Structures are given as C-alpha cells and as structure tokens.
Amino acid sequence: MSRPTDATAPMPAPMPAPMDVLLETLDLEKLEEDLFRGRSPQVGWQRVFGGQVIGQALVAAQRTVGEGRFVHSLHAYFMRPGDPSVPIVYSVDRIRDGASFATRRVVAVQHGKAIFSLSASFQFDEDGFEHQIAMPRVTPPEELLGEQEIKEKFLINAPEAIRRYWERPRPIEIRPVSLKHYFSRDKLEPAQDVWVKAVGSVPDERHIQAAVLAYISDMTLLDTSLYAHGTSVFDRNLQVASLDHAMWFHRPCRMDDWLLYTQDSPSAFGARGMTRGSLFDRSGVLIASVAQEGLIRKKASE
C-alpha cells in the first residue's frame, strides 16, 4: 500500500536560471571604497572560469568610474588558477581621471596572492571617423543544430570531457558553424565561427552588457589555436590555460540576439597559442575585438 503524501511538506526550491546566476555572480559586494568581493557559482568546476574573473574585474572597475564613461578597452593577465570554493577580492586603483578618459587597474586576490590583474580604459561617447571590417558570410544560427540537438545527436559516443562541457546548464548558448573539430583528430585550419547568445534577459544597461560580453569573450577562444594540431582543450594530455586577454569595445550592443564570434589563430610557438576574435551583431556591426594568448603545453609523460 502506498504511503499518503504529506501535503504540508515543503516543495524543493526551483533551480535559478543560468543567466540569473551569472548576473548575480557579476553583482559584486562592496567591502570598502575601491574594494569589492565576488563569488563563484558552485557548479563542480575545479577552477574559476576566466571569463567570470574578467567580467567581475570589469564590474569592479566600472563602479569607480563617473557616470557617462564606458569601457573601450581592457588588458588582463591570468597569474594563478582561481579557486571557486572561496570568494575573490578585487582591489581597484584609480590610475587617472582625465577630461575624456579614465584608467583603472584591478588586482584579484585569493588566499593572500594575486591571481589576476586587469587594466581598463573608459571614455565618454564621442563622434569621430567610422569604418569596420565586414562580417564573414556564414550559416545563420537558425539553420544550425541547437545545443539540445547536439546533445541528442552527438554526445552519446563523445568523450566524457566533451559530454560534461555540453550537458552543463550555461547562461550562454553556443552554436558552432562547424562541429568537425569536436569529433575529429584531423589537423584543421586554425579558424572557427561560433554563434553565441545570452540564455535569458540581460538588463538594458551598458555596464552590465559590457561585463556579460567580456564573460562571453573567453568562451571557445583558446580552442582555435589547437585545431591545426588535431587536438582540443579536452585532451587530458595537454595543460591548457589562458595567459592574457585583451578586448576592445567598439560599439554598444544589446544582448537580446545572436552574436557571431569569428576567430583565428595566427601563431603557436613556445608552448603558447595566440588567438584573435571579432564579435559581430546579427546585422553585421562589429561590436568588439579580442586577442588572447594561452598556454598549450604537453604534459610530461609518466
């Protein structure tokens, strides 16, 4: 005989949406003037995702800049892996406040040591010369497999690391124009095009949009430098990590539609791979440019 249900038993709390978790993660706690604390979502990662640290550091810098100035560039270095189990403290140094530009330096600290540093420059909106490169012609996102379809069609026989990557709920949906590099050991051209889109609503506020865009900018980028070598960031025989990250914000961008992230890797040498990226909105407007160098070192044989 089945046991009667307890109508008074509390219902389990619904899981927060991934985008809500990201926005909460980027909403830093102010500890003191120019000192902030950020936390990491507890999703089983062994280290903090680099895009999270970039986004949080940018938020810290933004909160010390006067109204009307918006980020136009950032340059960052990753020094140590971030520990997701403890908070990250962000200390902001107000380098300069000029008539047009403001400069900030941010150092992220965990366990008493610097794990990351970022310099960012902010500017009032200003008219001037305008030009941009053209967006490449690629298959639109609606004609590509969605993440759920990729999971159902390809993940059954995929390596465990790839399955975990795709099965984890994320605030950003990714639709690669080509999936060949995920399932092939062929040496391919070190280039890729990826559509990315926020899963959920991002507030219509430029500082928040810039922080989410900075978060996105670290996704899939380092992978591109490995395609020429028939391997990927999921290869357990490789030590792969971001070393530095630079980003230029060309134009404001709403986060309510697909963005094309086109990437190429001009060089790999000295256990480092260099990758460049351009982010376009659906209409072909160039939103931002990115450059990153990462460690791609073969682990010593046991």
Structure, described:
- With 302 residues, the protein is an alpha+beta fold.
- The protein folds into 2 domains: 15-125, Hotdog Thioesterase (Thiol Ester Dehydrase, Chain A, Roll); 138-302, Thiol Ester Dehydrase, Chain A, CATH 3.10.129.10.
- It is 18% helix and 36% strand.
- The chain has 6 helices and 12 strands.
- It has helices at 18-26, 50-62, 147-154, 160-167, 180-183, 206-217, and strands spanning 29-32, 35-38, 69-78, 88-97, 101-110, 113-124, 172-176, 191-198, 238-249, 259-269, 272-281, 286-298.
- Strands 1-2-4-5-6-3-9-12-11-10-8-7 form a 12-stranded antiparallel sheet.
- It is globular, with a radius of gyration of 20 Å.
- The termini are far apart.
List the SSEs and their pairings:
Elements: H1 18-26, E1 29-32, E2 35-38, H2 50-62, E3 69-78, E4 88-97, E5 101-110, E6 113-124, H3 147-154, H4 160-167, E7 172-176, H5 180-183, E8 191-198, H6 206-217, E9 238-249, E10 259-269, E11 272-281, E12 286-298
Antiparallel strand pairs: 1-2, 2-4, 3-6, 3-9, 4-5, 5-6, 7-8, 8-10, 9-12, 10-11, 11-12
Helix pairs in contact: 2-6
Q: Kindly give the count of domains.
A: 2
The proportion of residues in beta strands is: 35-45%
CATH secondary-structure class of the largest domain: Alpha Beta
Low-confidence stretches: none
- Terminal residue distance: 58 Å
Shape: globular
